Amino acid sequence: METMLSYDWGAMTPEFIIFGTAVLLSIFDLFAPKQFNRRLLALLGLTGIILAFVSLLSLMGQETISILYDTFKLDSFAIAFKLLLLAGSALVILLAHSYEPKEGMQEYRGEFYYLFLAALLGAMIMSSSGDLITLFVGLELLSISSYILAGMRKKNLQSNESAMKYIINGGISTAVTLFGMSYLYGLTGTTNLKEMSEGMVGVFDSQFQYLFGLAFFMILVGLSFKIAAAPFHMWAPDVYQGAPTPVTAFLSVISKTAGFVIIYRILISLYITAPGDSIGALTFLEKNGVYLAFIAGITMITGNVIALRQRNIKRLFAYSSIAQAGYVLVAVATLGGGAFLFDTVWFYLLAYLLMNLGALAVIQLLTDRSGSEDVSEFSGLYKRSPVLSVTMAIFILSLAGIPGTAGFIGKLNIILGAFAAEPGHYVLASIMMGVTVVSYFYYFGIMTQMFFRPSATNEKMKVPGGIAVVLTVCAAGTVLFGIAPNLPLDFLHGHFGDFSDFFE
Amino acid sequence: MNTILLTLLVFSPLLGMLLMFLVPKTDEKNLKMLGFLSTVPALLISLYLYIQYATGTDLSRFSIKVDWFRFGNLKSYDPNLFAVDYELAVDGFSLIMVLLTSILATLAAIASMYIKKEWKGYFMLFLLLEIGMLGVFTAQNLILFFIFFEITLIPMFFLIGKWGYLEKEKAAYSFLIYNGLSSAILLIVIMILFARTGTSNIEALRHIMTVGGVSLFAPISDPMKYALLIALLAAFGIKLPIFPFHTWMLRVHVQAPPSIVMIHAGVLLKIGAFGLIRFGMGIFPEQFRDIAFIIAVLGVINLLYGAFLALIQTDFKMVLAYSSISHMGIVLIGLGALNEAGIQGAIFQVVSHGLIAALLFFLVGVMHERFGTSKINDLGGLAKILPVTSGFLLAGAMASLGLPGMSGFVSEFMAFLGLFKEEPVLAAVGALGIILTAVYLLRAVLGMTFGKTKSMSFEGISEIKGIEFAPVLVLLGLIVGIGVYPAILSEPLQATLEAIMLGIGG
User: Which residue ranges run through the membrane (chain A) (predicted)?
Assistant: First the structure.
């Protein structure tokens, strides 16, 4: 007889650890005395994340495990992206540990940590979902926790505005996604992604294909909100600017990675084999790839061009992260040229995680102290702290895609995929290169501030421990993976091969 | 056979960068000394290579090839598919460019004595720049080439923007954006080749594109080949620079500190010519033959445009900047001629202009240090106060305008010889440029040396002295050496030249 215990629950160990830590933290926060320094909770959270990371590593190298009637599966795709999510979260929680804004965070610090872990849990469940229901539950867990996180500074007007905008936009996008999903369920009669995909392969009737197309576009629109792709990016600058900086880091890195995960889980896995015309000469994605390409193109252009005019550094990085999502979308739209479907996106997200979290760590350090978020906060940083400014320069160079950094290799990989496809995506890749040059304007604008301009104060910078760790890890990773990209790439290919179990 | 000599050559400046950390940042004297010494190993190694070559050693025994990384999980299909190796090698042509680079880097390190602030950062960037330049000329695959190419970009941005003159930030941005655009176009070309053929090795690509018969990852059509070549021309054209993409280069020449302009005019602009010859002619010989006439026309335009505008400049730096544009025209003319004399002339011009421009800009630095200006009118009567400097200046100008017995003459003569063979009319028009060159250079130099003496006080201004002689004498020696005995250049070039001629079927 099959009971609850006969499932291989071991596959969920990382999720259980995160869940357990979150519960533990919330109880602790409830009963701990008021004067207890809740900052220590961050270290507990960090321990949980590290444990989850280690347990995930120990789960590698097994056959795909699928439990709970295929709703939760641990395949190589899930492991690879969970590694990113966990690594990113470990860095973000360190940022949060060192976060000291002028007002507004003291009394809610405990909540911050366990909500953060809940959001992480949602993202992890999404990466492992084999079913629309779990996928949606994971998505909602992530989203709802993020809405609260964005409004964490209750007495700060901008933080409130940010949470409000986020919840309204996020709600709409979730509704649209869900509407699209309901079409899928209605047409195939199942919520299981695998069965759904098997059902869709045999559909050559153009009427049905039209409905599948409708579902595709609705889900695409909904998820474009999640990854802040143009033209659905409007919320991002306001939310990123108003949210506490660690939350901005979380939204721009972890939440965005989760967005790409769900795009792969639903859109790619279902539609890559579904026929796109009545004779099955083209698959659905081949036929409609141009729409994805359009979104990728317009996202890159919007992000990079609007970033040119920004003076607020967090806003600037919001647009920069929109642009970066556009680059990743190029890889999705071109399907990595066929040969690089997963590793391109994984590597770019890894590079993006390191460089963007690093940059946001510096931003947090500078803006916390002064309360001002103007770009001129960076002026003369080289005089005040040469090490800090060189570290920031590494992140900026990586974001701009300059050789010697991980960002360059990531971009190279994306362009390679775009050109290796037949016919090549020349226009899309050229747009990407063109806007990369545009991005030099604002990225090097920060460099100008740091290195060429005189400083307003001569006050030396003191770097708190958490931020110091984040900066060290991110800078070392960015440079190491730029000079020796074979390390992560060989790791990926050695352990996960072609991700062939993704479609099984 | 693998050896680490070339790796040592390219990365030897790194040692200096590391040692810089040990020196306190206010210790001007030791920093300058260390900066200078850090460029010496590369110079010694490249001289050693040249001597080895001259005594008949095969340069291929210095090449190195190590696995680096690979894209995609395609190892089981083909172990080399989308693999990027770390591979360095030199042949005669790149050996000459390496030698030019290391000589100019050492001399520019000497000229860096005029740098007034933040020597530590300056020399670190300077040495990084040298790594990039040496790497560009020795890289054996396009990805590696591109990486080194971009490595030159970042230090230059800072060197111009921080240590330059009044409008330095604008010049730095202008440099960054134009060169960023050039790299973007270049990267598109490189990645199309890489993605479609599965390799970025220059030799392998040359084989695939000219001989064929290799199965590709995805096809490259004939129109695509033309598109790629034209994109290459645009990418390297911005770098060279070809009119109308030259405005950034004027700003850099005027705003950057003289030591950096020496490097910039001497080596960085030459990467454009190097790339056109290596990749344009090497990988797309047939297509290059079809557009050769256009290149020659562009060359003549460059030559005349630069010369005419140089005529009316009041700042000596501007004269030299326009003169650089004009002289790069001669490179294009030589390439456009597409025969042995022409191409040889083009390469000679690359080296010769590198040396001459470095010499003249060093002298600009010498004068700027003393008078704080490089305006021709302000410097009138220079010969009375600084007779020796004026003499050097005149010698440099003579070399630049192509006086027989100096390197400029050999290169211009050969480039035009080549073009007259193919397109006599065009060459005749271009020859006007030679006359103009003499006019604008003599006008500028005579204006400075014998012009009206200004009332400004020249008290306490000393003649060129001590270590300042070193760059001038070395450069002049090389210029005259090549002019009198061109074989020191033409012999290493012979093999490269033959390979190119074989490719274009001349």
Answer: 16-33, 40-59, 79-99, 111-127, 133-152, 164-188, 208-228, 249-271, 291-309, 316-340, 346-366, 387-406, 426-444, 465-484
Shortest CA distance to B108 belongs to which of B392, B353, B362? Answer: B362
Please indicate, yes or no, if residue B487 is contained in any of the structural domains: yes
For residue A273, the model assigns a pLDDT of: 82
- pLDDT band, very low/low/confident/very high, at B457 (cuts 50, 70, 90): low
Which pLDDT does position A104 carry in this prediction? Answer: 57
In a domain, A11, yes or no: no
pLDDT digits (tens, 9 = 90+) for B391-411: 899 999 999 988 888 888 989
Q: Taking 70 as the threshold, does the pLDDT of residue A472 lie above it?
A: yes
Query: Within a domain: residue A377?
Result: yes
Indicate the residue of B143, B157, B218 with minimum beta-carbon distance to A420. Answer: B218
Lowest mean pLDDT among A153-162, A333-342, B450-459: B450-459
Give a yes or no: residue B261 inside a domain: no
pLDDT grade for B322, boundaries at 50, 70 and 90: very high
Tell whether A433 is within 8 A of chain B (Cβ): yes
- B126-151 burial string, b = 16+ CB within 10 Å, else e? bbbbbbbbbbbbbbbbbbbbbbbbbb
Q: Are B252 and B175 in contact (CB under 8 A)?
A: yes
Of A288-292, B156-160, B460-464, minimum mean pLDDT range? B460-464
Q: pLDDT tens digit string along A197-255?
A: 888 887 787 788 888 889 999 999 999 988 988 888 889 999 998 888 889 999 999 99
Parent domain of A200: 21-503
Please give the residue range of the domain that contains residue B330: 291-506
The residue of A493, A496, A501 whose CB has the most chain B CBs within 10 angstroms, and thus the best one to mutate to test that interface, is A493
What is the spatial distance between Cα A385 and Cα B173, in angstroms, rounded to a whole number?
Answer: 24
Inspect the interface and report whether the beta carbons of A489 and B150 lie closer than 8 Å.
no
Rounded Cα distance between B20 and A331, Å, is 41
Instruction: State how far the Cα of B411 lies from the Cα of B318, in Å rounded to an integer.
Output: 23
If one counts the domains in chain B, the total is 1
- From residue B77, how far is each of A342, B82, B84 by CA, in Å? 18, 11, 16
pLDDT at residue number A354: 94
Cβ within 8 Å, pair B153-A340: no
> Alpha-carbon distance B224 to B473, whole Å?
49
In a domain, A274, yes or no: yes
Q: Which of B7, B71, B158, B200 should we substitute to test contact with A (largest number of A Cβ atoms within 10 Å)?
A: B71
Q: Is residue A103 part of a domain?
A: yes
Q: Give the SS3 label for residue A145.
A: helix
* DSSP 3-state of A72: strand
Show the tokens assigned to B100: 């030019």
d(CA A208, CA A320): 39
β-bridge mates for residue A73, sequence order: A66
Chain B residues with CB within 8 Å of chain A CB: 67-75, 82, 143, 146-148, 150-151, 153-154, 157-158, 161-162, 169, 173, 176-177, 180-181, 184-185, 187-188, 191-192, 194-196, 217-219
* A419, A449, A492: best to mutate for the B interface, most B CBs within 10 A: A419
ipTM of the complex: 0.91
Residue B1: predicted pLDDT: 44
Mean pLDDT of B480-485: 90
Distance from C-alpha of B344 to C-alpha of B341, rounded to nearest angstrom? 5
Asked if residue A464 has a cis previous peptide bond (ω within 30° of 0), the answer is: no
Q: Is residue B501 a part of any domain in this protein?
A: yes
Residue B64 lies in a domain: no
Residue closest to B259 by CA, chosen among B125, B151, B137: B125
Between the CA of residue B225 and those of A184, A208, A423, B202, what are the distances in Å? 45, 43, 15, 15
Q: Look at chain A and report how many structural domains it folds into.
A: 1
Model pTM?
A: 0.93
Retrieve residue B367's tokens. Answer: 């004068």
